Every structure is written in C-alpha cells, then in structure tokens.
Amino acid sequence: MADYVFRYELDGGSELVYSDPLLEMIRAQLESILDVVIPVEGQREVRIDGFKLLRDRSTVHRIFPHEKESSERFE
Amino acid sequence: MHQPIVEFIRRQLHSLLSVIELEKDGRVVHVDGFRLRKPEDGLQAAGDRFHSGQSGRVSCGASSFQSVKNASLYEPRIELIKKQLESLLRVVQLESRGQAIEVDGFRLRNLKDWLSPSPCDPTEIFGYAGTRCNCDCVFCCNKGNPATLALGNFRRPASEEFAEMMSRLDYFLPKPGYCLFPTLGDIYEVMIHPHFFEVLEATREKSAKAFRITTNGECLTPEFISRLKKLKPVYVHLSLNSASPSRRARLMKGRHPKTAIESLPLLTEAGIPYALVIVPWPMDSVQEMLDDLADTVAYADRNLAHLVQVNLAGYSKYFSHEKLYDLDEVWSRVVSAVRDLRETTASPIVVMPSMYEENAYETRKNASKVVGLVRNSPAARSGLTRGDEILKLGSVVISSRPQARGLLSVLQGNEAGQASLTVERGGERVEVILNMEDFSYPYSPETDHHLGVIFMGTGLRLSYLESLRGVINSHNARHVLFLSSTLVKPIFEQLLAESHLFGDVRLDIGVPRNSFFGGNIFMGDLLVVQDFIDFIREYVKGGGYRPDLVVIPSTPFSLGGWGRDLTGRVYLDIEREVGIPVELLPCSTIFD
What we know:
The complex is a heterodimer. Chain A is an alpha+beta fold. Chain A has a domain at about 20-60. In chain A, about 15% of the residues lie in helices and about 25% in strands. In chain A, the strands form two sheets. Chain A has a two-stranded antiparallel ribbon with strand order 2-3. A two-stranded antiparallel ribbon of chain A has the order 4-5. The longest helix of chain A is centred in the middle third of the chain and has 13 residues, at about 20-35. The N and C termini of chain A lie far apart (about 60 Å). In chain B, strands 9-10-11-12-13 form a five-stranded parallel beta sheet. In chain B, strand 17 (about 420-425) and strand 18 (about 430-435) form a beta hairpin. In chain B, helix 1 (about 5-15) runs antiparallel to helix 3 (about 75-90) and helix 10 (about 285-300) runs parallel beside helix 11 (about 325-340). Chain B is globular. The interface between A and B is large, with 38 and 57 residues.
C-alpha cells in the first residue's frame, strides 16, 4: 500500500514586523528556527534576540517583536 | 548586489525540497527555479536555478490537509518548514520550466525522514481511530476545549483515517523504538471506528504489548468481546460511570447503556482485565451522586474489576461560564466516600488526581503506603494488606513512594521468583514473601506494573531536588522562583524541608492560575505559556524585584517533547516576554 500523504496548507504566514521584505524574510526564518533549537557556542547555550546583516554591522535588528529589549527589562 | 540573498534563498529552497514536495490544488508541482519578486529584476539567469531533486510527480485524489497547529505541538519542524516557505514566498516567485507558478501547500516527501524515538505503545496506532463518539456525556472534558488548543480533530472519511493508521503501522518499529511523529487530537471512542479490528489485528502482528483501550462500553457486546479476546493481552479502561441504566443514560446519552453495564461479567469470563472508570457528577444532588457511586463500585467489585478509578471532575470556562457545583464540597465528599468504600471493597479504588486525597489525609506525603491490592496478584497473595507501608524490599531500605514503585517494577520485570518485603502495619514491622509466580485473573504480568500493589499516585522523585540544584548552580542563581501547582506544592515543600540542598538560595514557590482554561481547573499540567508569563509579571510587580531564575516543571510542556504547551506555544516565549532566565525541570506527570 502506498504511504499516506501528510499535507499541510500554506496560508500566507503571520504578521510582518519589518517592511523590508528581505529583512523580514531573514527575521521570520530566525524566529521560526529559534522555536525549535537553542544555539550553542561550544557547550554553552546562547540566547539570541537579534541579528546584524554582514554588510551593516552597526544595525541590530530584533528577532522577536514582543520581546523586551534588555534595557526595558525591569530590575 | 542581491547575489548573497539569491544564494541564501537557493540553498533554503534546495534543503526544503529535499524533505517536502510543493503542491497546488492538491497536485504536486515541479519547481525548478525562482525569481525575486521585484518587477525590475526580471527572470534570474540560468546560474541561479536550483535543482529540486527527483522530478515532481502529479497526483490526484489528495488526502486532507493536516493541522499545522497540531503539528506545532508534536513535530514543530513542520511548522518551521511552513513558516520558512511563507517567508521565502513573500520575496520569490517560483518557476517551473520557465513559467511562474503558485503553490498553496506542501507534503512530506519521505515518511522515513520523520521517525521519532518512541516507546512504541500500540495506542500510538489505534488511538487514531478515536475521532468520533457515540455518547454525549454531560461531563465530557472535550466540550471544554477552546479553539486555540493544538489538540483539535478535523473531519476526514474513515477510509482516510484507516489509510493513515496503516501507514503509521508501516513505520511502527518497536525493536529500534521508532515511529512517526504523533498527530493525535482529542481521543474519543476508538471502538466505533469501522476499521477498528483491522487495525488492532494488524498491530498485533507487530507488537506483543498489551492493548490498553479506553471505551464507554457501548460496543462491548458478547461478539465484540469475543473478538477482543483473540487479541490478548488487552486491558480495558471502561468508562461506565454508573451501573444504573437510567442514570448512565442520562449522564452519557448513549443508546446502549445495558450493553456497557452487562459487559463486566463478559470481560471477566473472557479473561480481559479492566479498570472501571467513574466520573462522579452531581447531576441531581451530591447525595444521589454518592449513593450511585457506592452502588457502581459494589457492582464492579462483584464482577472482579482489576481497579476502580474515580476521576474527580472539573470544567473549564469554555464548558460553562456559570458555576455548576462547589468543587471543594464535591471532591472532598467523593474522596471521603471512596475511603469508606475501600473498607468493604476487594477491588482497589483510586482517586484521580491522587494528590488531592494525599494532601487532605496524609500528614507525611510521598510515603510508600499500600492503598489497595489487585485481586489474586502476587502482592495480594503474599499477605500484604491495605494500609501497609513498605519499609524494605529485600535489603534495600525504602525512603519514598517512587522508589518503592521503581523497585517493584524491576522485580516484576526480572521475574525473580521470590522477594521479601518488610512493612509497617499497625506500628509493628511485618515481613512478607512475594511469590512472583503466584497469581491469576485479574492480575497479569503483561498489564500490571508493581506486582499488584496500588499506591496513591506516582509521588515525587527525590532526584528532582538534585536536578533542581544543578539547574540553579548552572545559573549561579541566588533568588529562584519555582512555579508549582496547588496539588504538588505541599509535597514539594515537604521534600524541601527534609532536604539540605538549598540553604544558600532563596527559593520562592509560586502557583500560577489556570487563566487560559478558567472554570474550576487548577491543574499544573494544564497551565500554558501565557499563564506563566502573567504570574511572573505579577510576582515581580508585587515584590518590586525580579528573581535570577525561574524554574518550571516540564510536565505542562512534555506532550510532544518539544517544549510546547497545549496551544502549541514554545516555553522559550516566557523568557522572551518577561526578560528573566527560565529553565524547565524535567519530571514526569503525577498521573499514573
């Protein structure tokens, strides 16, 4: 008997955070990857909350739209 | 200028297409190129094409779409693929043979890529038959599930469900311990599925494990039981709820209450052990409910029930906005009635959740006290009695219930022949000899776990405290907020008081509210990410300071193993929202 086919619908995706579509593509990909993995450096777990494009190391782009900036978190 | 981006997209699409096929209107589409979605760029040069692997095939009569929300709970890499595709499709237009094409879905390319480690319990196959019900129980917990839950079912023809079950069986590999990722929704009545026995018989060819089948009993005719008998070992969880045909009919609205009620002696005759499940529901009055509980327990006892399980009922705000009954009054009176019934009933009776009874009646919790004994089990025949507290197993001193349970399971598994137990009984130490080979129905080594000893739930492992200390050390935390539940907190506090591991740490214990489910629900395992976020925010606001670390037992996030709550949301969102490190403490559920 042929395998049962597991199918999933595409529905346009969630709300856009950045208006730049290429930037938003990267943000969305990182956001979705970070829901299934925890990055590590050596053996140390690393918490990621932003990224920089290699061509512009001066600008940090947030990954999670609702996450508090470290400066906003209460002491 | 766009070359790095183009290469990034090319690699992403290439890796995605190694595990999925894209489709449009139920047909697989062959994708061999893409273009960026900017009118001024035009088509990409041939060098930007990617290879989709094997050539696409077109198929008709596609199966139904699966729920991505359900997948997010059990296999979130599927949700990852969906989100990746959607984010890519915002910036590229796919092509096939130079023509722009649209896609609206994807399918998994090779099911063998999706095998997960699994205990390979047969329920992982026939559980998928439970998509419909032939009753309409007034207390059905599935009525209290909001739409945002990841466990919903969707309607499919029975033939398609059968095709899925048989495919799952093809990838059901008990020896290495792998099977396909689950997609179970709410499980209703498996026995009414038109392909139920075909699936069971095929599963029996692959697994010798006991079939643990939950049923409302409406199908348990003599002929049905006769077919089940051929597939032993089988253990039935029979939701009888009342031994009175009229009361059962009002509680469950099934068409065959007498079939269910009369099945008990038939199951006994067939040598199929069963747990009789009762959900006491104060339909008319609490006293009527308790009187019926006593009658139903007596009926089960006369028919040699392996176990009587009394499920204390709660309901969510989606089930009822109005208060239906006083939970403390109903639960406390049920537990009191059960404790009285144990004096006159040979079949062991447990209350679920067992910690409710333990908190109400046991000064010293987590003890290895015998609550009941399965009839004709090695434990029952050894002379153990209800109320005994196990002090030693052979030469091993027992210090907790989980330890006693673990050792009894090992003994049963080893088929060691005989073992000695030292118990405390009425203030004195008594020694009994367990003979593992001395047993008969309803006990069975294939369906029992602790040689027939019934405890008051699983208890809390002392090793959890050591694990907690390890988590705290890894963060160098000095102020820790541990989030527990109403039921577990008293036992946890007792273990903490007896431990010397946390003297240098401030350890606050909080109990979040079940705001998501609401109603009178207060179970830790039903807490969701937002419940934890809300509690932590209130805690910080209330105290004016924040802890170094929040630790949460893993059980609300353990259904799929990917750290998702019942809405499919990942626990990592808690830390993202509150800005405080959050760790899960791996532990098992309190339900046996």
